[in-house]
Design a protein that fits this description.
Strand order of the largest sheet: 3-2-1-4-7-6-8
Subcellular location: Golgi apparatus membrane
Largest sheet: 7 strands, mixed
CATH class of the largest domain: Alpha Beta
Enzyme class: transferase
GO molecular function, one term: galactosyltransferase activity
Oligomer: single chain
Distance between the termini: 89 Å
CATH architecture of the largest domain: Alpha-Beta Complex
Structural class: alpha/beta
Strand content: 5-15%
Protein name: Hexosyltransferase
Organism: Rubroshorea leprosula
Order of helices and strands: HHHHHHEHHEHEHEEHEEHHEHEH
Length: 415
């Protein structure tokens, strides 16, 4: 009886030619007409409800299973559950273009943030590996310190007077050097050992070190043609001893304003892989016997070509992750004749930001003096003609008096 009532209720929805007793002519007409989508939906619902009622009727007579009662409201509810889902998908497809672009932008930002996180983790892993390579004796003598910047002053055995000229001008000494280090600024003269370890040169340096305590000794044999190797060893050693944001290399015949340098670096603190200095592209010298001769000149193209852009060797700096990169990959980093070219070559093909800061290569007075009076204190000053301050021992104090930032500047920087 339930089935009969259902068919009777659906009868207005079913074409008359489908009902029992329809004429043959009506049936033939039906066969020739296509069935609409709406009609198919009605038939499916009718079949579903009829089957449900039949099943419910069977349960009622066959055992304790509960009966199923289908009300007219159930049909409405079933249709209502289908409609919202379709509407939601249609709205998603037909959404405003600005909403879609907003989603794309947020997704892109999330990916960039994830990439930075992965980069930082890789850098930390590289630093950890580097520090793990220190011998137990080395690790026990040097506790790892947190710093903002490590400033390594490249020097040689024959440069005692140059070192003294810096100690008397821009480089703090004694208790002030220690206090500066507590602030997060480490300054050291960087030097290796002689070809005959324990010889006269090494003993003289040991004596100077005991007096001033301002050296970073490298496992490296000193020599002019070994500057690329020395640069590589310096960064590897520094990153293993100090956890710093930046590592600087400066020559011992250059005038440096430490406070101005720190403020300059602070502007790039949040960036990954920073390589900062005065960028240049000098000629590749193929003639033998001349200064800065490049034996591998043929790698740079035809005669007369220039090098790729790189920071000039008097002063440059790199961020922590680049120092760690040098340390981890030291055995396979190629060394050219000129150390500044070598450093620039190591970063080719990497995602490195080259910062060209001309305040790092001001001229000596009157150039740096005029800029200081105008409120633009230079980070570093030297003479291009001498690749440093000409006659630096005699002139360093003069340059410092004219172009120095003032004794209190370095103590006022906020790290």
């Amino acid at each position: 009886m339930h089935v009969k009532r259902l068919i009777s209720g659906l009868q207005p929805l079913i074409p008359t030619e489908w009902l029992p007793g329809a004429s043959d002519n009506q049936s033939k007409k039906m066969r020739g007409k296509p069935v609409s989508g709406k009609m198919i939906l009605v038939l499916c619902l009718a079949s579903f409800l009829a089957g449900s009622l039949f099943t419910g009727h069977t349960w009622t007579h066959g055992g304790p299973s509960p009966t199923m009662t289908i009300l007219p409201t159930d049909v409405t509810r079933l249709a209502g559950e289908i409609t919202p889902d379709c509407n939601r998908k249609r709205k998603l497809v037909e959404g405003k273009s600005e909403d879609i672009m907003g989603e794309v932008t947020r997704t892109h930002q999330a990916i960039q943030s994830l990439e930075r996180t992965v980069s930082n983790l890789e850098m930390e892993l590289a630093v950890a590996r580097t520090r793990g390579q220190l011998s137990p004796e080395k690790a026990s003598n040097h506790s790892l310190q947190k710093a903002f910047v490590v400033i390594g002053i490249n020097t040689a055995f024959s440069s005692r007077k140059r070192r003294d000229s810096l100690r008397e001008t821009w480089m703090p000494r004694g208790a002030k050097l220690k206090k500066l280090e507590e602030k997060g600024i480490v300054v050291r003269f960087v030097i290796g050992h002689s070809a005959t370890p324990g010889g006269v040169l090494d003993k003289l340096l040991d004596k100077e070190e005991a007096e001033h305590k301002d050296f970073l000794r490298l496992k490296h044999v000193e020599g002019y043609h070994e500057l690329s190797t020395k640069t590589r060893v310096y960064f590897s050693t520094a990153v293993a001893l100090w956890d710093a944001d930046f590592y600087i290399k400066v020559d011992d015949d250059v005038h440096l304003n430490i406070g101005t340098l720190v403020n300059t670096l602070a502007r790039h603190r949040s960036k990954p892989r920073v390589y900062i200095g005065c960028m240049k592209s000098g000629p590749v010298l193929s003639q033998k016997g001349v200064k800065y001769h490049e034996p591998e000149y043929w790698k740079f193209g035809e005669e007369g070509n220039k090098y790729f852009r790189h920071a000039t060797g008097q002063l440059y700096g790199i961020s922590k992750d680049l120092a760690a990169y040098i340390s981890v990959n030291a055995p396979i980093l190629h060394r050219y004749a000129n150390e500044d070219v070598s450093l620039g070559a190591w970063f080719l093909g990497l995602e490195v930001e080259h910062v060209d800061d001309r305040s790092m290569c001001c001229g000596t007075p009157p150039d740096c003096e005029w800029k200081a009076k105008a409120g633009n204190v230079c980070v570093a000053s030297f003479d291009w003609s001498c690749s440093g301050i000409c006659k630096s021992v005699e002139r360093m104090k003069e340059v410092h008096n004219s172009c120095g930032e003032g004794d209190g500047a370095v103590w006022n920087v906020d790290l």
